[in-house]
Amino acid sequence: MSTSIDTTDSEDAVSHPAMTLGAGSGRMLDFIQQLSLNERDAMKAMLGDQVSSFFDSNNRLRRDQESSVEQFDLLAETLRNLTPHSDTIPANGIAYRGSPAWVTADLLLKLQEEAHSRRDQPLDRMDHFLGCGGQVADALSVSPELVEFVAEHVGPVSPTGIASYLYYDQAGLGIRPHVDTEVFSVNLILMLRHEYEAGSEPSATVVFPARSEPEAYRLQIGEVMIMHGSSVIHGRSLVQQGEDIHLLTIGFNRIFPGN
Ligand SMILES: [Fe+2]
């Protein structure tokens, strides 16, 4: 077993051919701009349900037909355009990746211990194991220092107070590609543990921007990523035999003038 030292790299990205969209992209944008916020939410939920059909059972983007690639790009672009103030969001949805000063060795240790201690409790199982936060994670999720840090990278936010430990510790777990709801539009991820067998390809968070190569992110222990999860299609590639990942995720909502 070894500790993850991987970084994002293009050779890890699932590639697909370059493609161009036709006039459909512009017409869709015109249509979206006529919709009310409620109508946009409804359309986004409906289109969000279509995302999974573009991926195979290994959470990899299907590339079997050029038409399906174009349809995927139109879907990804439309989901992004339906997100409020999408023009202020990076194309890949990633607002930050790094090792901020607030992740001290002491805080990291406390979060790692809390995550570990809660792994044995009954957890929700989807395609990964989901646990609520704990005392340490919950306090962090609403701390003024953290809110200020997130706001520096995405603009004003309000904390949801929702902190969750995620566990990927069985082969075949992962997260099916999807977009998040507006309730949890900004997602902060902190890597707490990542072990894997030497020679295997470790699981990664993968984002799938429209008309671009998918990007795979393997965070180091203590590293943080902030993602506009409601704007970009994202998932986790499948966990390999012997792999063990503990993550903390914390949700935020962007605040805009007038809301
Ligand atoms: Fe998500």
TrEMBL record:
The organism of origin for this protein? Paraherbaspirillum soli
Superkingdom of the organism of origin: Bacteria
Q: What is the lineage of its organism?
A: Bacteria, Pseudomonadati, Pseudomonadota, Betaproteobacteria, Burkholderiales
Which named protein is this? Answer: Fe2OG dioxygenase domain-containing protein
